[in-house]
Design brief:
single chain; 526 residues; alpha+beta; 5-stranded mixed sheet; 3-stranded antiparallel sheet
Length: 526
Amino acid sequence: MLFYAEPIEFTPQAGCGAPVWLGQIAEGEGLLRFAIAVHGAGGRIAALWGEDRRREAERFRLNCVFGINQGHVWVALDLPAQGDACPSYPDLSGIFPAASRMQRATRDLVGIASDGGDQRPWLRHGGWPADWFPLRHDSVHEVGVGVGFPNLPSDYDFVQVGGEGAHEIPVGPIHAGIIEPGHFRFSVVGERVLRLEERLGYQHKGVERRLAGADFATGTRLIGRVSGDATCAYAWAYAMALEAACGVAPPPRALVLRAFMLERERIANHLGDLGALGNDAAFAFGLTQFMRLKEDWLRLNAELFGHRFMMDRIVPGGVAGDLDPTALRRVVEQCEAIGREVKALRALYDEHSGLQDRFLTTGAITAELARELSMTGMAARATGLILGGRCYRQGYTPPPPYDRLGVRPATDERGDVAARVAVRFDEIFESLRLLKEMAVAMPEGDVRVEIAPVPGATGLGVVEGWRGEVIVGARIGPDGRLARVHPHDPSWQAWLALEHAVMNDIVPDFPLINKSFNLSYSGVDL
C-alpha cells in the first residue's frame, strides 16, 4: 500500500471483482498502526469479523477489511487460544467508531474481544449464556431444536441523558407495521431529540453458523436471504468471493446479466422508498403512484427471472438463467415508460411545498460525519462524497461490466432528507440508462461455468448494492465445503449515522428520517 511503509506483504486477489489486496499482520500493534495509517490516508473500515480456526491451527483469527481509494485491503491477525479466556486484540473503535458494534458482535459470536471500547453485548439478548459462543467450532447446536438454553430477559445499559426537562421515549422492538424488530431509545426535551440510541439484534438468525459446513449451493440460498431487499447484491458478492478463491472467471454475458439484475434491484427499492417518503410526509398520492410503478417492475422481474426479487438467480460461476431478445426488448420498453412517469413524479415532489417543507434541513448529516463513520452508498453520496463501487475515481477502476459502462455517480451536498430523495431520483434515471445500454449490447456466449472448490482458499467479494457496499468474505475448508462466510451489510455503518441525523429534530420527524436511510435490521442481525 502506498500509504503504509511497514514491511507487510500484500497479495492482489485474482478474479473479476473489485480490486482487493490480502495481507497477514503478525501482532496486534501492527494492526493498530495499519488502521491508523488507513485513517490518515482517508480510508475507512469496511468490515470486521472473527473466526475460530482451532480445528486446523490452534488459534483464532480476526479479519478486518479496510476501504481505500484504490479498492479494499483484507488483513488477518491470528490470536493464540488462551484456555477459557477470550483472546484479545487492540480496540479499533477509537480510530473508526463504526468498528465498535462489529467488535461487540464478534465478542458475542466467537469469543474474541477488543481490549477496550464498548463491551456491552450486541447480538446476545439473553438467548445464550455470556460464556458460550455460537461460532466456536466446539459449540453444540441441534438444528431445529436449539441448544437447550432458556431465553431469559436481559437488561441493557442504555446511555442516559439527565438534566431539567429531559425524559426518555422507548420505541420498539415491536413496531406497528410489517417491519423487523429494533428498539429506539430517545432522550428528549419536549419534542426535541437530544440523543437516540439503538438496540438491534432481536431476531438472531444464526446465518453464519448455518453457512459453516454448507456446500456452495446451500450457501447461495442462505446468503441471498441475509437481507431480502438486497438479495442480488449479496448473491453477487458471495459468488465473487468464491470465484476469487477458486480462480474462476464468470463469462462476460453472466457478468452483464448480474449487473442487469443488480440495477433492477436498485430501481425497485428506490421506487418503493420514494413512495414511502411521500407517505411519511402526508402525501399519499406519491405512495400510490410509486408503489404502482414498483409493482409493475416486480411483476416483470417475476416473468423474466422466475422471482419478484430475483432470488437464487446469481450463482457461483455465473447466473442461473438467461434473457432472450424478446425479454430484453420488454425491459427497454419498460425503462422508457417508467422513466417518463418518474420524471413527472419528480417534478411533482420538487414543486410540492408541503413535501419540501418536511424534507429540507431535516435529518441532516455532514460529509465529515459520513467519512468518520466509514459510510458508503446512497446516504454517503447525499453528503457530497463521490464514493461508489460502480464508478471510476482516482486510482480506482470498477469491476466488470461497470468498467465499460461509465456510471455517473449521483450526489448531493445537503446531507438531509431532501438530498437523499434527490439522490434516489438521480440513481433511478442512471440505472434506467444502464439497463437500456446493457440490453442493446448484451454479449453473446455462455452464462455459467463450473466452479470446483479449492480447499483452504479464501476470497472477498465487494458489490455496490442499492443501500451501499455489500461485502462477503469466504474461506473454504479442507473438505471443500464452506468453513467460514461473513456477510456484511452497509447498514452496520449507517445505523450510527441515523443516531446523529435525528439530533435536534423533533420526534415526529423520526419516521421520515428513518425511511430516508431505509436501513436493514436483518443485515446486522446475523
